[in-house]
């Protein structure tokens, strides 16, 4: 119910105390811009602050630190897809409190929708295929493809709600986890382990 949603910020307190990000004014501005106008361009300072704060949330020496935040290809992929992912978050966050529940996220995965600006500037929510079809040819992203927004959102859901057993997700944690999902998707697939060699037959016993 709504009373459970009202308590959402305290339910994530344990996570926040585990790795509290180094908040900066530019990072807060970047989040605010993404929240209210996901398709507007971030300033250079905001983009740099976003990446710096996300990197600061990694634990040195841990497996998650191997995401390698500084890789140019991953940064580029993340900044291009992020507005669409945040737009998906916005479609879940109907009460605009920057927190979504596991149930709301599950609902989005069943019916993925993101903000779509129609002629005249009217904003609606549309499915990924419709939004992808409306993009100019030079900035097609394959939103509705196998490695598109729905796949990244599904992995974001798994990382946060399943692997970390959370019930709610803040916008900050969404942006961080989405980046982890994007970087993970750019990694080369691990080779399958080779099958063990069959054991040599025992030599026949001599009479």
Provide a quick synopsis of the model.
Helices cover 52% and strands 8% of the residues. It has 207 residues and is mainly α.
Detailed description of the structure:
By secondary structure, the protein is mainly α. It is elongated, with a radius of gyration of 21 Å. The protein has helices at residues 2-6, 8-11, 13-18, 25-36, 44-56, 72-92, 102-110, 128-134, 149-162, 171-186, and strands at residues 99-101, 113-117, 123-127, 168-170. Helices cover 52% and strands 8% of the residues. The longest helix is centred in the middle third of the chain and has 21 residues, at 72-92.
| Tally of strands | 4
Structural class comes to: mainly alpha
Shape: elongated
How large is the count of helical segments?
Answer: 10
**How helical, in percent, are the residues?**
40-55%
Question: Gap between N and C termini, in Å?
Answer: 82 Å
**What does the radius of gyration come to?**
21 Å
Strand content: 5-15%
Strand order of the largest sheet: 1-4
Largest sheet: 2 strands, antiparallel
Order of helices and strands: HHHHHHEHEEHHEH
User: What is the residue-averaged pLDDT?
Assistant: 77
Low-confidence stretches: 1-23, 61-66
């Amino acid at each position: 119910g709504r009373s459970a949603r009202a308590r959402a910020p305290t339910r994530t307190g344990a996570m926040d105390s585990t790795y509290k990000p180094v908040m900066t004014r530019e990072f807060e501005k970047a989040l605010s811009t993404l929240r209210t106008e996901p398709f507007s361009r971030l300033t250079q300072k905001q983009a740099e602050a976003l990446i710096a704060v996300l990197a600061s949330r990694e634990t040195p020496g841990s497996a998650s630190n191997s995401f390698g935040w500084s890789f140019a290809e991953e940064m580029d992929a993340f900044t291009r897809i992020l507005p669409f992912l945040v737009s998906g978050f916005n479609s879940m966050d109907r009460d605009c409190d920057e927190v979504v529940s596991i149930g709301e996220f599950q609902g989005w995965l069943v019916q993925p929708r993101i903000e779509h600006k129609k002629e005249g500037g009217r904003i609606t929510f549309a499915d990924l295929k419709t939004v992808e079809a409306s993009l100019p040819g030079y900035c097609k992203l394959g939103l509705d493809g196998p490695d598109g927004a729905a796949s990244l959102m599904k992995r974001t859901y798994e990382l946060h709600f399943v692997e970390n057993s959370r019930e709610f997700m803040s916008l900050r944690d969404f942006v961080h986890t989405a980046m982890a999902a994007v970087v993970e998707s750019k990694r080369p697939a691990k080779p399958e382990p080779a099958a063990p060699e069959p054991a040599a037959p025992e030599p026949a016993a001599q009479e």
